[in-house]
Design brief:
Largest sheet: 7 strands, mixed
Distance between the termini: 34 Å
CATH architecture of the largest domain: Alpha-Beta Complex
Number of domains: 2
Number of strands: 12
Radius of gyration: 22 Å
Strand order of the largest sheet: 3-2-1-4-9-6-10
CATH class of the largest domain: Alpha Beta
Order of helices and strands: EHEHEHEEHEEEHHHEHHEEHHHHHHHEHH
Strand content: 5-15%
């Protein structure tokens, strides 16, 4: 074990929902692979939240945890960067304070990089955890599922004659499918385990208080070497909690639309892969009407918003259509998300073609529990199981 690589998990910490933070930490303690460290970066939290953090970590009596403090809130990107600079590990991964790493994740990271040392990045999707009165399930996004399991159908949608290809043409067809599928998967902003050397080429951009993961993935897309050194998998490693809260940065619609604009401005070289990837997103209403919605959320009058929307089309039919599209965005991001504090994904994901993986993940947990001895580690695996399924 002494010669085995160490994994560093970096957790930005800013006034989190503390019971979720405890469960995030317990998911680290549940890991079957033991050679890891956790750097928690307190990003200018309140005194109460800071004291709770220090008291809890001290109570664990585990030297694998360390805490760094910022004197004010600099944002998740800055917190991650300082964590990266302070790690001596070969492999780095990240965890948000309200999410969970599955207990087998770190062992599988080590297994993968040991067997495939030519790769620098292991990318996997977020498994989405919804826990409401109506729903208690884990979902895998439809697109991520198909891009791995049925890539030809996504990449060459509508191509009906693959059997007519020669063997040489089939090789080109398969290779092109693999390359495009990789780009499309990275464009979904997967969760990453990275060799530390990657951060000599790319890094988190402090201007992004949200969308920092999207920005990092766009940097990977713009680097052919890094892209070709990335392996994608559907294996369940990361559980992302979907829940409603007015205090979450992802619920700050103004910030979300501001960072959309920053991504567009940063990757404005139309020849770059990142810019072309944003073009795919640009077909969504959020991106098409980004400036109008941002100005509206920033205090612009409804009359001015209507005028700006009307100017986006010359035809009467187009004006009415765009007004309806903008109105739906205002309802979604101002009323539902910002004012009511509701994460609309709680209601959309179960109905949007996502695959319900609850049973599969529970079976993996049970199998994992049966394979380990009764010790402190198993206690934390049980706690993580209960946090997810009970």
């Amino acid at each position: 074990m002494n010669d085995a690589p160490q994994i560093t998990t970096i957790i930005p910490y800013f006034n989190p929902r503390f019971n979720f933070f405890v469960e995030a930490i317990e998911s680290l303690l549940s890991q079957s692979y033991k050679k890891w460290e956790c750097i928690i970066v307190n990003d200018g939290s309140s005194i109460e939240s800071k004291n709770a953090l220090e008291g809890y970590i001290h109570s664990l009596s585990d030297k694998r945890f360390s805490i760094l403090h910022f004197d004010k809130n600099y944002g998740s990107s800055a917190a991650r960067n300082i964590g990266i600079r302070n790690t001596k590990s070969e492999i780095v991964t990240f965890l948000d304070t309200d999410d969970i790493h599955f207990p087998w994740y770190y062992q599988e990271i080590i297994n993968f990089f040991s067997k495939s040392p030519e790769y620098l990045i292991l990318a996997s999707p977020s498994y989405l955890h919804i826990k409401t009165k109506e729903e208690k399930s884990i979902f895998l996004g439809e697109f991520e599922n198909k891009i791995i399991n049925k890539p030809h159908g996504i990449v060459f949608h509508g191509f009906r004659f693959p059997k007519i290809l020669s063997n040489e043409e089939k090789e080109v067809y398969d290779l092109l499918t693999k390359k495009i599928a990789l780009k499309l998967f990275i464009n979904t902003t997967p969760r990453l385990a990275l060799k530390k050397e990657v951060f000599q080429r790319i890094g988190y951009d402090p201007q992004f208080l949200t969308s920092e993961d999207s920005d990092l993935c766009l940097q990977i897309l713009n680097s052919e070497d890094l892209l070709n050194s990335t392996y994608i998998t559907l294996n369940p490693y990361y559980l992302h909690r979907i829940f409603s809260s007015r205090t979450r940065l992802t619920q700050n619609s103004l910030l979300v639309f501001q960072n959309m604009a920053r991504l567009k401005n940063k990757y404005n070289d139309k020849a770059s892969i990142a810019s072309k990837s944003l073009w795919l997103l640009g077909r969504r209403d959020e991106w098409q009407f980004n400036t109008i919605i941002y100005d509206h959320l920033n205090g612009q009058s409804l009359i001015k918003t209507i005028r700006d929307t009307m100017s986006t089309s010359k035809s009467k039919k187009g004006k009415i259509k765009n007004l309806w599209r903008v109105l739906k965005l205002i309802i979604k991001y101002q009323l539902i998300t910002q004012i009511l504090g509701i994460d609309y994904r709680e209601h959309i994901i179960p109905k949007a073609g996502s695959t319900n993986k609850t049973k599969d993940i529970e079976e993996l947990f049970i199998k994992h529990l049966q394979s380990i001895e009764q010790n402190r580690n198993k206690t934390y695996v049980n706690k993580t199981y209960e946090a997810i399924f009970n």
